[in-house]
Design a protein that fits this description.
heterodimer, A: ABC transporter involved in vitamin B12 uptake, BtuC, 2 domains, about 0% strand, B: alpha/beta, Rossmann fold, 15 helices, 18 strands, about 25% strand
Chain lengths: ~350, ~425
């Protein structure tokens, strides 16, 4: 009866393989999507240029006509897409694990709406008060404030029951939706707000990547530290408590991190819905429920997914990417709702 | 004492749930917590497992206050098996069990050979190693319970707390789990505190019982001390019979059907006298009482099942001291009862020299023109332990016009009542 033991270590090997595959797909994605756009860039050129830039190889002659397109337009956009996809998927995975509910995502519990209100507010009232940081900062404030609000409304005694939290999130989201509508009603520059709300990467640049990259990775790592705690919490909160986990503390910390990573993602590119909902779910089907693999895998899948949808958006004449994700996401959400009737995922 | 619960009060909000709980348990002890719903059993476990903080009082493990322990340290000492063990995520059983290693591992540390070895040992101990690779969502309730207990054991705790580990399980798993707990205490020297709903299981397996009522321990001690009809009546409000289990000498609780408390109201108001003994009259007594007849019985020895049942049913009965022959005095009393009866039934009782007088009394009944129904289910020769004396008398009864019957249904039919089968 030694078999399960070996199988268990095979699991770790399997995890590594999953990551290797995903990273390979990611690299392919970066190259291929760089090629796509109004101007087609041949992939070999891209590989050569990237190799050169990263000092991996010394390619002799690269036509300079693609430099600007690749380096200044497409690449920052793709990297930002990866970061945003990673953030939203991570936030979604965190919240779904936290609430033991695959319907949770940063939008449904109101975090993203809060960030949107903060960002739009900064666009209306405080343009440029913290330079390029204004919008992310206000988005973060909005997200944190909303999280705090939802958390405290949903709190019963010293605990936060999941059902009240979800319902509170929906109610607060609706309210924030009204606030947004009001701000749009009084706004002069409706166009930029409107486009921001639909979400898109057309304004992406390296400066935004520079601001985003560090907080996102730090936050991802901090969340990842709690992977085992989230596993245990899937068994029930009291169960997790008896396994030596300070459940209420972990919940608070993870809510803050999820809000933070969402706000960071949302601040530059606007509200892109459903990534945080679909990606963790699909990844869970692929790699199982263990958060130790689910976090990195869904982060990569999220990034890859968003980069491809953005490429599609680019091909469809710069359509806001939020429209495309919603196009996939809403039917998927309905599918989950239908599945819920079986009661499989819900406690 | 290794585990000491000292004067603990616990509240939900402002409602006091536990009131001055004070007990201790030692290594290798299986302590059963029993009590009616809402008496605070689960709250007690939640308090010991630190989910609920006691407002007053302390909990000590080997002299150390558990409130002072770090979370992980605490869960290396205490493990809990919750009431609801449903898991909706596709972890394998081994994954679940390995989560028990959480308190022993660092945050980013993967489980190693040693952890899997411990998990395997625990799963073998709980007899679920063969399930290791199966998804937890596909296991039956009993199998899942074994896996969850294995997970608690991989924590390598000193104290194991279980909240109704056997509820919703079939009797096979109930026994398996209780025997497992017994083994864990006697072999692994664990302190096991288990809330158990089934009083008989609790009596059979626990070393000591604590009976909770309205947040207080009303009785604490051996099963014989705790499980008294009076205690059960005072806490559960239920009428029960406590008997000793024939095999194990453990207390055995069974409920008294509430029908028995009903007043007799058969319109015929027939009085039926049973001549019984050896437990042969008990079920007929019950049957007749339920149908509203007035029933009397005699002569039975004390401690005979028939005597105990008659006492429970509140039936007038003539008794004799245990293992003693029927005295003249009892015989006369018996006759007096028979005089009052409308019908006399002689049950399928075996006869020895001690109760020969019961055959004599049957003869007297016939002489007094009482209708006499005689059970002939087992041939009299087979239950005659008097070298033919009883058989002789039995045949006399037959000759004198006793009505022979083979079954209870026949008796009831003759008494002009529809049997359950006709209804």
């Amino acid at each position: 009866m030694i078999k399960p033991k070996i199988a268990y270590f095979n699991k770790f090997i399997h995890w590594k393989m999953v990551m290797v595959y995903l990273i390979a797909i990611l690299c392919a994605t970066i190259v291929l999507t760089t090629a796509i756009g109004p101007v087609y860039v041949p992939p070999p050129e891209i590989v050569a240029l990237l190799g050169n830039k990263l000092h991996l190889c010394e390619a002799a002659s690269i036509p300079h006509k693609y430099d600007v397109i690749i380096l200044q337009i497409r690449l920052p956009r793709i990297v930002l897409g990866l970061l945003v996809g990673l953030s939203l998927a991570t936030a979604g995975t965190t919240l779904q694990g936290l609430f033991k509910n695959p319907m949770a995502d940063p939008y449904i519990i109101g975090i993203a709406s809060g960030a949107a209100v903060g960002a739009v507010f900064s666009m209306l009232i405080l343009p440029g008060f913290l330079f390029i940081y204004t919008k992310p900062f206000m988005a973060f404030l909005g997200a944190m404030f909303t999280t705090f609000l939802v958390y405290n409304i949903a709190k019963v005694g010293r605990r936060i029951p999941v059902d009240t939290l979800l319902l509170t999130g929906i109610a607060v989201s609706l309210f924030l939706g009204a606030v947004l509508s009001f701000m749009m009603f009084v706004a002069e520059d409706l166009h930029s707000i409107f486009f921001w709300l639909m979400g898109g990467f057309w304004l992406a640049n390296w400066a935004q990547v520079k601001i985003t990259i560090l907080p996102v990775f730090v936050c991802f790592f901090l969340i990842y530290i709690f992977a085992k705690d989230l596993n245990a919490m899937l068994l029930g909160e009291e169960c997790a408590q008896t396994l030596g986990i300070n459940v209420e503390w972990v919940k608070k910390i993870l809510l803050v991190f999820a809000a933070f990573i969402t706000a960071t993602a949302v601040s530059f590119v606007g509200t892109i819905g459903f990534v945080g909902l679909i990606i963790p779910h699909i990844t869970r089907i692929l790699v199982g429920p263990d958060h130790r693999i689910l976090f990195p895998a869904s982060a990569l899948v999220g990034g890859i997914f968003l980069v491809w949808t953005d490429a599609l958006a680019r091909l469809l004449g710069e359509m806001p990417v939020g429209i495309i994700t919603a196009f996939f996401g809403a039917p998927f959400f309905i599918y989950l709702l239908r599945k819920r009737k079986g009661g499989h995922y819900f406690t | 004492m290794p585990l000491e619960i000292k004067d603990v009060d616990a509240y939900y909000g402002s409602v006091k749930i536990l009131d001055g709980i004070d007990f201790s348990a030692s290594h290798g002890e299986l302590l059963g917590v029993i009590g009616p719903n809402g008496s605070g059993k689960t709250t007690l476990l939640r308090t010991i497992s630190r989910i609920l903080k006691p407002k007053v009082g302390t909990i000590l493990l080997e002299g150390r206050d558990v409130q002072g322990m770090k979370d992980k340290e605490f869960s290396r000492n205490f493990a809990a098996v919750p009431q609801d063990t449903t898991i909706n995520f596709d972890f394998s059983a081994l994954d679940i069990v390995l989560m028990g290693r959480n308190p022993h591992l660092g945050r980013l540390e993967l489980e190693g050979e040693k952890d899997i070895e411990i998990a395997r040992r625990c799963m073998e101990l709980t007899n679920c190693w063969h399930l290791a690779e199966r998804p937890i969502t596909e296991l039956s309730g009993g199998e899942r319970q074994l896996v969850i207990i294995a997970r608690a054991l991989t924590q390598e705790p000193k104290v194991l707390l279980l909240d109704e580990p056997t509820s919703h399980l079939d009797i096979n798993y109930q026994i398996e789990i209780m025997e497992l707990l017994k083994r864990l205490t006697s072999e692994e020297k664990l302190i096991v505190v288990a809330v158990i709903h089934d009083l008989n299981l609790a009596a059979q397996y626990c070393d000591r019982l604590a009976l909770l009522h309205e947040g207080k321990i009303v009785s604490l001690g051996t099963q014989a001390q705790v499980l008294t009809a009076e205690n059960i009546k005072n806490t559960f409000g239920a009428d029960v019979i406590i008997k000793k289990h024939a095999l194990t000498d453990h207390c055995f609780v069974s409920p008294v059907p509430s029908l028995l408390k009903r007043q007799n109201k058969n319109e015929a108001e027939l009085t039926i006298h049973l001549i019984c003994g050896g437990g042969e009259g008990a079920s007929l007594m019950h049957e007749l009482c339920e149908r509203g007849y007035r029933v009397t019985a005699g002569v039975v020895n004390m401690l005979d099942t028939d005597q105990e049942v008659a006492k429970l049913l509140n039936i007038p009965v003539v008794t004799e001291a245990p293992f003693s022959p029927i005295t003249e005095e009892a015989f006369q009393a018996h006759l007096a009862l028979i005089d009052k009866a409308n019908v006399v039934v002689l049950c399928n009782t075996p006869f020895g020299y001690g109760n020969l007088k019961n055959l004599e009394v049957a003869e007297r009944a016939l002489e007094r023109n009482k209708p006499l129904l005689v059970f002939d289910a087992t041939r009299i020769e087979k239950r005659d332990f008097t070298n033919g004396e009883a058989t002789k008398r039995f045949i006399t009864l037959k000759d004198k016009g006793a009505i022979m019957v083979k079954s209870q249904e026949e008796v009831l039919k003759l008494l002009n009542i529809s049997t359950p089968f006709d209804a």
